[in-house]
Amino acid sequence: MTFLEKLDWLMERENLNKHTLAQQSGVPYTTIVGLYERGPENARLSTVNKLCAFFGVPLDYLALDEYERPEDFTPNGNTVALTCATDQETELVSLFRGLSAAARETVLTTVRGFAGNPSMQKESTKSETA
Asked: What are residue 58's phi and psi, to 5 degrees?
């Protein structure tokens, strides 16, 4: 898949059009339209990074044509691989990956709130922060 085919697929997955993608990702609408009109070859790295962060995909996924879906991306030595230690962690990651970008942000905000609340932390974490 090409960059634009992947971008189309990601927007379809999130039920977005170019206008809503611009609003939610912080990438100007004219920049998104320009990617389609002029091609992504001269896209700024900051633009591609914003799109990757918004969709929760690695830069290599959008940049390299060899990956069809984000799940096809296999981390290399320059990428931190995620290892889940428990079935709960695996389920959490799997469920998280199935959420829309907006829902993922909501989940992250909630988890950050829990992480900052001493009453929600494990005993070993509480004693380390005290």
From this structure: -70, 155
Average the pLDDT over 111-121 and give the result.
87
Cα separation, 35 vs 115, in Å, equals 39
* 105 vs 110: CA distance, rounded Å: 9
Residues 2-11 have pLDDT tens digits of 899 999 989 9
CB-side exposure of 11: number of CA atoms within 13 Å?
A: 18
- Whether residues 68 and 91 share a domain: the answer is no
CA 61 to chain centre: 11
Q: Mean pLDDT score of the chain, rounded to an integer?
A: 81
Number of domains in the chain: 2
